[in-house]
Specification:
Blueprint lengths: L3 E7 L3 E8 L4 E8 L3 E2 L7 E2 L2 H18 L7 E6 L4 E4 L5 E5 L16 H8 L8 H11 L1 H5 L3 E4 H10 L3 E2 L1 H4 L5 E2 L4 E2 L1 H7 L8 E2 L5 E4 L2 H6 L7 E3 L2 E2 H8 L7 E4 L6 E5 L11 E4 L6 E5 L5 H11 L5 H8 L7 E4 L3 E2 L4 E2 L4 E4 L9 H26 L6 E5 L6 H11 L2 E5 L5 H14 L8 E5 L5 H17 L6
Parallel strand pairs: 1-6, 6-16, 10-13, 17-25, 25-26
Antiparallel strand pairs: 1-2, 2-3, 4-5, 7-8, 7-9, 11-12, 14-15, 17-18, 18-20, 19-20, 21-24, 22-23, 26-27
Helix pairs in contact: 9-14, 10-12, 12-13
């Protein structure tokens, strides 16, 4: 029996709501741009107003449901960007949202003591990226706003609050707050004390696949629904994307989107004394993802196309790339040297002098695509240094892999077969579908691999990677050099 799910996928730049079948077929989808506000009382702070987001979300969802009024929805679930939180008062009113791009806690990170122990417990470095730091920064400059907080939760579980009025959080999101002990799968009172965060504001843990409850009567009335629908807890977007990739323990998965997480699935907790990786709770908190990440990647390519190649379709660019067998222009725009815990502040193009008369704007775009491949490959090598990888394939998912050229570059660089499943470009949504299928006990006969890319010998590519690496170091010298 085929069921249909209403799936929310809240990202950093934009968000989506879709109706998807239990087989993974997307019937309809609507997308909107997320709106943020700056807070000039900090050097780098942004926030959003949950009530504004909720109004838009419900309006667009109503339009989608009206278009597919003949489809009966069997469950609602959600995926959300990591490191983002929503703050509630004692009346369960969501009064403030702090997104992953908010860095209001940066100024006070030096106050945090015992950083090695925090890394060991949370799997994350002490930085302004995580909600613990955001809450600390809020308390420093807005003590009255901070005192208003009764509970917090993540973006994905905020959707559950809208529909069911329950405030909970999934382990895949709890681990992103830096207040959660992944070795015990519970909130840490000791870390709360380090950040001077009230332990009582932390919500109950509900694992992915849990029925949070039936949607509220007022929501049913708003959408003109005459039947009850359960809300099924989803989780963090990266973990849901990984779930969609058909991976097993020991696999490596590349997730290509705005950033490009590179993760190793492990059943056992992993601790790196050198702090060269992140360790994430997977969905349900039953196993772990060991992560490296080159930072901003796909967003660079998207913006370059929008600004300079808007007249070209992605398919036309792919056709032009297929004729490329040289690397006359190199780019460096990825934003992290992950294993060194270092941001890359400078980027640019490297082109041989004097300027070639044959150089075109397509060469620059090709350079950015190669930069994404090289950046992912470098972090893949770093992950393999931590945990040797012997398998002859890598699982891949995410919108960036709609580029066959990127897939082939990575297959050639890693000398591994790259495997993608059906609808890999909507990986977080497909992960949500699997969560709902698990709840209903639906086991698909087979999970079909959409396509794969075999590695080819490409000596010029390897030479170009080494040159790219040298150039990036020149552009971003270390503080000690």
């Amino acid at each position: 029996m085929k069921l249909y799910y209403l799936v929310f996928d809240l990202g950093t730049g934009n968000s989506k709501v879709s109706i998807v079948s239990s087989c993974g077929d997307i019937l309809g989808m609507k997308t909107w741009v997320n709106q943020y506000n700056k807070d000039d009382n900090y050097t780098d702070a942004q926030f959003f107003l949950p009530q504004e987001w909720e109004h838009k979300l419900l309006k667009i969802t109503g339009e989608l449901l009206k278009e597919f009024s003949d489809v009966k929805i069997s469950a609602i679930t959600s995926s959300g960007a990591r490191q983002s939180i929503v703050l509630y008062d004692k009346k369960n009113y969501a009064f403030l949202g702090l997104p992953n791009i908010d860095n209001r806690g940066r100024e006070w990170m030096k106050e945090i003591k015992n950083k090695p122990e925090i890394y060991k417990k949370t799997g994350k470095w002490v930085t302004e990226d995580f909600p613990a730091a955001k809450l600390m920064g809020l308390k420093k400059k807005y003590p009255e706003e901070y005192s208003r907080i009764n509970k917090i939760n993540s973006l994905s579980e905020w959707i559950g609050t809208i529909f069911c009025n329950e405030i909970v959080i999934e382990p895949s999101q709890a681990c992103e707050t830096q207040l959660f002990d992944i070795t015990k799968n519970e909130w840490s009172k000791d870390i709360c004390k380090e950040y001077d965060i009230a332990y009582k504001i932390l919500p109950d843990i509900k694992i992915s696949g849990t029925n949070l409850g039936l949607i509220k009567p007022e929501i049913k009335e708003l959408f003109s629904l005459e039947y009850d629908i359960p809300f099924i807890v989803g989780g963090a977007d990266t973990q849901l994307a990984v779930k969609s990739s058909n991976c097993s323990n020991g696999d490596i998965v590349f997730v290509s989107g705005t950033t490009s997480p590179i993760v190793r699935v492990k059943n056992e907790y992993f601790y790196d004394l050198g702090q060269r990786c992140w360790v994430d709770c997977n969905l349900g908190g039953n196993n772990f993802l060991i992560e490296t990440n080159p930072g901003v990647t796909g967003l660079n390519y998207q913006r370059f196309k929008q600004n300079f190649l808007s007249d070209y379709t992605y398919q036309e660019l792919e056709s032009l790339y297929s004729k490329k067998n040289t690397y006359s222009c190199m780019a460096s725009f990825s934003s992290l040297l992950f294993s060194q815990q270092r941001s890359l502040k400078m980027g640019g193009f490297y082109i041989k002098s004097p300027l070639s008369p044959d150089l075109s704007i397509i060469d620059l775009a090709w350079g950015i695509l190669c930069d994404i491949a090289f950046s992912i490959y470098e972090e893949y090598l770093s992950l393999c240094e931590l945990i040797p990888f012997e398998m002859n394939y890598i699982r891949c998912c995410g919108g960036g892999f709609r580029s066959d050229s990127l897939c082939q570059l990575l297959a050639d660089l890693t000398n591994k077969e790259l495997i993608l499943t059906k609808n890999f470009y909507q990986a977080s949504i497909l992960g949500c579908v699997e969560v709902c299928n698990d709840y209903y006990g639906i086991i698909l006969k087979s999970k079909v691999d959409s396509k794969s890319f075999q590695p080819r010998e490409n000596i010029n590519l390897i030479k170009s990677y080494k040159e790219w690496s040298r150039n990036r170091k020149l552009l971003n010298p270390s503080e000690n050099s």
